[in-house]
Amino acid sequence: MKQPIRIVIIEDSAVVSMLLKAILNNEADMEVVGVAADGREGVRLVSELRPDLITMDIRMPVMDGFEATREIMSSHPTPIVVISSSVDDEELKITFRAIEVGALSVLEKPHGPGNPQFESNRREIVEMVRAMADVKVFRHQRYRGERVGAGVGSSPAPTSSCSCSSMPSSRSPAQPFELVAVGASTGGPQALHALLRNLPADFPLPICVVQHISPGFVGGLIQWLNTDSALRVKMAEQGELLRAGQVYFAQDGKHLQVNRAMDGGLQAGYVLEPESLHRPAVDQLFNSVARECGAMAIGVILTGMGDDGAKGMKRMQERLAMTIAQDEASCVVAGMPRSAVKCGAVKEIVEMDRVGPRLIELTLPMRLIKKSMVFS
Question: Where are the 4-aspartylphosphate modifications (predicted)?
Fold first, then answer.
């Protein structure tokens, strides 16, 4: 019989701690083996108990969640799921600093059993703990993602780094691209951080992103990514024209789509339908990109649970778009890329540290043409 997942809860609120303990201990395959009320006590408990997984609060006395995560990942690397409040800007900043030093995911603190959202909160926590418990974590950061400079000359040198499928392409190498569309879920914040650090300020395309994340956290994710990216990262607004060198994230609770503007450019749009497991959904973004851009798009599917994005990427591939999946070895959870590969939607499988450089390779002719026009 398989041993239960052994969990340490690090949380300064007795009420939240008791609620988490009840949720987790109610599962036959989970056991809470320790509870700490501050980060320092949590570090000690992890050293003593060597759990399979940790749930981590952020704002705590003595030692906050960022410092506790950093200490744990340097001494006893363990999967960490941050369970945080999303209403406080300072807490959001600390939350994503914890992600940067090794925490795997972030979830909203659960509501009580009388709240209508309790069941969905409970299910999300349980599913995330199951998925994260088997993730192999290391002392070093998973992705290097060294930041590049502003111009063509400072970009990483192109190298052959992808495992390419034998799928034929009818696309002309000289044909320009219009857009990059990216989908990610579990492990996505770290992957996106590495990707955007690798792209220069003169990257010649707009980038649209759907990231599955608990409601209220996407703003904090954008702030964090902006501190370390040469590109401008922002929330996509309804009807906004999409511009080169900017990264547009989907808002909470709406499906982000790309539409053709009256002047022939591209603009962001939102729809509420259809109802789906995820809203925003990667499939909805990819479907719209296939419709509007065809072969002039690049689709990228990164780490994540489930299969969102596979069908949409298949539509992109059928319209001759370039389609790229993160390789399984560098994923936190490989469900989404694996599903896209399985349905024949992927042209190239690329290690995470090479996704950014691969995008630079694909768009280099556009950047060189633009640079020559500036100096002509």
Answer: 57
